[in-house]
Amino acid sequence: MIVCVCNAIREEKVREAARTGACTVGQAYARCGTKAKCGSCLPFARAIINEERAALAANPPAVAA
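and the corresponding structure tokens:
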């Protein structure tokens, strides 16, 4: 699914950015090499990031010893 029409950013890219440390829409979009333009995508992108960050908090990745 497309999250940001202006930048053609797909949901999976936003999820990937959140899983790799992006905590804000700005950080997620920067990882995609862009920034928000019109802003209509911000609520949806924020919801995706919050969902991924919550999933990570509930199931943190195993740390290699």
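(Above: one complete record from the training split.) The chain has three helices and two strands.
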